[in-house]
Amino acid sequence: MATMEANWKPQFLFAVCQHGAEGALKRELAVRAPQLRPAFSRPGFVTFKLDEPCEEAEKFSLPSVFARTSGFSLGSVKGERLHELARQVWELPEVVAFLRSARVAGLHVWQRDEREPGDRGFEPGPTALADEADAALREAAPIHALPADAAGRGHGIPRNRWVLDVTLIEPGQWFVGCHRTTSRVAVWSGGVPPIELPEHAVSRAYLKMAEALEWSSLPMSKGERVVELGSAPGGASQALLDAGLEVIGVDPAEMDESVLANPRFTHVRSRTVETSRKVFRHVQWLAADMNVAPRYTLDAVEAVVTHPGIHIRGMLLTLKLPEWELAAELPAYVERVRGWGYKDVRLRQLAFNRQEICLAALRSRSQRRVLRSAGKQREPRRRADDGHASLPAPHGDF
C-alpha cells in the first residue's frame, strides 16, 4: 500500500450515529476530543473541524461511544442525476488529493438513517438507492482510482486499509469521506453489520444480541452457559441459542413457546433479585436487557457477579438511556464494572440499539477472541430482507 504523503493533512471529520443521538455525540466529543468543533449536521450525521490539520491521518481515531463509524471528510456534492453526482465525487479536489496519497481497498456507500431503529419497522442497513449509487460510483471511477477488486459492504476488506465513504444525506446530496479499517466494525458499511432477522425471531432483540456478539467478539464457545436477565419474550435468547450456547432466561414474564421448546433453553420465571444464586453456578456468561434505568441494571448484575461461588467470565449488558443526559454517567458505569474485577470494559451504541448502549466486559483484554489467529473470520448473520425502504431517488438517468 502507498505511504501517506506528508502534504495530505485533513482537517475535517465526519461521524455517523443513530438518528437522534447527535446531541449526545457532540457532548461526548466536547469532553473527550475538545480539539473538534461541530460543523455540518443532520439527524444521524455530524461533521467536525479540527483545530489544526491532522499530521498522522493513519493513526487518528475518534474516541466515541455514539459514533457508528467515522473518518475524514473529503467534501460534498449536489445534483439531480445519479451519474452526475457520481462524476462529481471523483472530481472533488480533496478526493483527488487523497487518491494521490493512498490506495483505496474498498468503497462504502450508505444512506443516512430515516428514523430511530425499530420505529415503524425501520432498521439500519442496505437500501436500493445506496446500491444504485455504489454502482454509479464504480462505473464513473477514473482508472486506478478504485481497483477492480475494491470491496464493498461486508467483511471483504483487510485490516488497516483505506476505504472511501459516500453517505447519501439526501437523494441529491452526498458527503464523501475516508476511513481506515482499524477495527472489526470498520469493515461494515456505515457501521451497520450485515445481520438478518430470521423468520423464527420472536422480537428485534435478536438483532441487538446478534450485533453485540459480532462487535464484542467475546470468546464464547458452543455448549457454554449464559444467563440472560430480562429474557422475555426471547429474541435475544434465540440469538444466543443460534450461536450454540446453553441459555438460562430469567424473567417473570412469559417466554415465547418456540423458545421454550428449544432443549438448550431453561426458563427461570422470577425476578432477578428473587432468583436463587444456584442458578448462576457453573455459568460462564451473563447478558442483561432490562427495561430499567442503568443503575438498577448494574445493581442487579453486581449482586450476581460479586456473589461468592459465582464466576462469570464476561458480560453483555444493555444500558437504557431514558434521557440522553444520562450519557454523561457512562464513565462512572464503566468504573463501577471495573470495580467488580472486569478490567476490559467497552461501550458502543450498536446500530440496532435504540436509546441505549451495549456494554461488553471481560476479566482481562487477553481473553478476547483473536480471529486472525485462526486465519479467518466468523461468517456474520446476514440480512434476509431487503433492508429499509429508500428515500426517493434523484430524477434522471441511472
Description:
- The structure is a single chain.
- The protein is an alpha/beta fold and 398 residues long.
- Helix content is 22%, strand content 23%.
- The protein has helices at residues 22-32, 82-91, 93-101, 128-140, 205-216, 235-242, 257-260, 294-305, 330-338, and strands at 12-16, 36-42, 45-50, 69-78, 104-111, 162-170, 173-180, 225-229, 246-250, 265-268, 285-288, 314-320, 344-348, 356-362.
- It is elongated, with a radius of gyration of 22 Å.
For the terminal residues, how far apart are their CA atoms? 33 Å
Q: What can be said about the biggest beta sheet?
A: 7 strands, mixed
Provide mean pLDDT, rounded: 89
Total helical elements = 9
CATH architecture of the largest domain: 2-Layer Sandwich
- Structural class by SSE content: alpha/beta
Which stretches are low in confidence, meaning pLDDT under 50 for 5 or more residues running? 370-398
Globular, elongated, flat, extended or rod-shaped: what is the shape? elongated
The Cα radius of gyration reads 22 Å
Q: Report the CATH C-level class of the largest domain.
A: Alpha Beta
H and E string: EHEEEHHEHEEHEHEHEEHEHEE
Tally of strands: 14
